[in-house]
Design a protein that fits this description.
This is PiggyBac transposable element-derived protein domain-containing protein. Helix content is about 35%, strand content about 15%. It has about 500 residues and is an alpha+beta fold. The termini are far apart. Helix 4 packs across helix 14 (about 420-440). The radius of gyration is 29 Å and the shape is elongated. Strands 1, 4, 5, 6, 7, 8, 9, 10, 11 and 12 form a ten-stranded mixed sheet that branches.
């Protein structure tokens, strides 16, 4: 069969072929720029979730809470949570760390709703740690006001510069840089899609029936094939807002090239594994020009030589075709199984010990990097529903950071034995909440400072009541130290 242009022709090949010489120009793989090998788990978490990111969350959360209160002050009741936020004060760094710890602990101890973690009525369902760490209303306020960008600087929806992912893009960009900064991947990489499950209203919403959630936000993910360490995540904006593809370029080809470019892994002879959505002969040739190998399955409707497209091998048999460095394979494992077609620029036509083609064994071993990461994510994630899609993405990124930090710990630590992921997460939670718990113990909460009035029904509140100016505020509680009338919302402003 003649090939168009100056490309060499396709010809049949039969196993065994001589193995190809495959150089690799990547640096030694594994974690880099690590702390001491005996460091506790919390230090590995802070590598990826740095103090700069924490400060930005605190800053933008306080900004949004203040702006929202100013906009809705006239419509806000005196005892609403928004007023309570203003009286309790701004979010602090130690408090935000504790907020992260509570979120992660909710993944270890799953309950039907957030308020169940503060349940006092049923002793069988009581979880005192959550009450010790946070007041329920304070935690829900932090979750409500959580932001990473200044909303006033985001273009409106009718603006030509509008981006539906603008509320999370700074976080995704920051996380991608950190993932690459502390890890050098092995040669084998995998590219696949992942779905952050949600049914919220957004132009980015996708329906993928093969995924567990079916509805959600799609990410293109580049991960190390063996460990599942995520290197890059690109959010799919939807057909309306996604940039137009170059002429003659498949979406799968464009996604793979962009992921590798952003990770700076081209021209180093890395080996990428993809499924049939991404794989094509065009992608194989494009990556070869940029000194990168490809192995993946092919769809029947993709361009390929007729000797592979029309091949009908017997069970256990394989048909091979080659054009230069590109090898095509059609293989049927059993009589009633569909045949599978694969392309590779790395492997030769060789049969493995289990009678399958070497290319098939390699694909089975190295294609699942993204799926492995998703599987590990699902274990200790409470999958809490959120009405705001962008907030669901932020919480997903928190758990993605936690998982990658464990992979860094697992490959670098000198601990013997190495902590399981469950124990690692528990120690991270302890490290995140330690300072905040200490502060709360030094400054007892309002339940310890106030008590019900016993002598008479009510007293004037010593903080917010002012009879001289005609403002009288009665309280049914009093300070347990000085016995003056005191509302529980005024405790933090009272000194005695």
């Amino acid at each position: 069969m003649a090939a168009p242009g100056n490309q060499p022709i396709w010809f049949r090949v039969f196993p065994p072929e001589a193995e190809q010489d495959t150089p690799f120009h990547g640096a030694a793989s594994g974690p880099i720029r690590m702390p001491a090998r005996d460091s506790p788990p919390i230090l590995y978490f802070y590598l990826l979730f740095s103090l700069d990111l924490i400060k930005e969350f605190v800053k933008q959360t306080n900004r949004y809470a203040s702006d929202l209160y100013d906009r809705t002050r006239l419509q806000t009741g005196r005892f609403s949570r928004k007023c309570q936020w203003r009286k309790e004060g701004k979010l602090t760094i130690s408090e935000f760390k504790a907020f992260l710890g509570v979120l992660f602990n909710m993944g270890l101890n799953r309950k039907s709703s957030i308020k169940e973690y503060w349940n006092r009525k049923n002793m069988s369902q009581s979880t005192p740690w959550f009450r010790m760490t946070f007041a329920r209303n304070r935690f829900q306020n932090v979750l409500k006001f959580l932001h990473i960008v200044d909303c006033k600087k985001i273009p409106a929806r009718n603006n030509q510069n509008y981006n539906p992912a603008s509320r999370v893009k700074p976080l995704i960009d920051f996380v991608n840089r950190k993932f690459l900064y502390y890890y050098r991947p092995r040669r084998e990489l995998s590219v696949d899609e992942t779905l952050v499950g949600t049914k919220g209203k957004t132009a980015m919403l996708q329906y993928i029936p093969s995924k567990r959630s079916r509805f959600g936000i799609k990410f293109w993910v580049l991960a190390e094939a063996v460990t599942g360490y995520v290197l890059q995540m690109h959010i799919y904006l939807g057909k309306t807002f996604e940039p137009a593809l170059p002429a003659g370029t498949l979406q799968g080809t464009n996604v793979v090239i962009k992921l590798l470019q952003s990770a700076d892994l081209l021209n180093k002879w890395y080996h990428v594994f993809t499924d049939n959505f991404f794989s094509s002969l065009n992608l194989a040739r494009t990556l070869l020009v940029q000194r990168t190998h490809l192995t993946g399955t092919l769809r029947k409707n993709r361009p390929m030589p007729n000797m592979i497209k029309n091949a009908n091998p017997d069970p256990g048999q394989t048909t091979y075709a080659r054009q230069g460095n590109i090898l095509l394979c059609s293989f049927r494992e059993q009589n009633r199984r569909k045949q599978v077609k694969l392309v590779s620029t790395f492997y030769s036509a060789i049969r493995a010990m289990n009678a399958k083609p070497l290319i098939v064994n390699a694909y089975n071993n190295f294609m699942g990097g993204v799926d492995l990461s998703d599987q590990m994510m699902a274990f200790y994630n409470d999958h809490r529903k959120q009405t705001k899609v962008w907030k669901k993405i932020i919480l997903h990124m928190f758990h993605r950071i936690l998982l990658n930090s464990y992979i860094l710990y697992y490959q670098h630590t000198s601990h013997n034995p190495i902590l399981t992921r469950f124990e690692f997460v528990k120690q991270v939670i302890e490290g995140l909440t330690e300072e905040h718990l200490s502060n709360r113990q030094q400054n007892p909460g309002q339940r310890q400072k106030i008590r019900k009035v016993t002598e008479r029904k009510e007293k004037d509140c010593t903080v917010c009541s002012d009879r001289k100016n005609g403002r009288r505020r009665r309280a049914r509680t009093e300070c347990s130290r000085c016995a003056k009338g005191l509302h529980k919302l005024c405790v933090h402003r009272h000194e005695c």
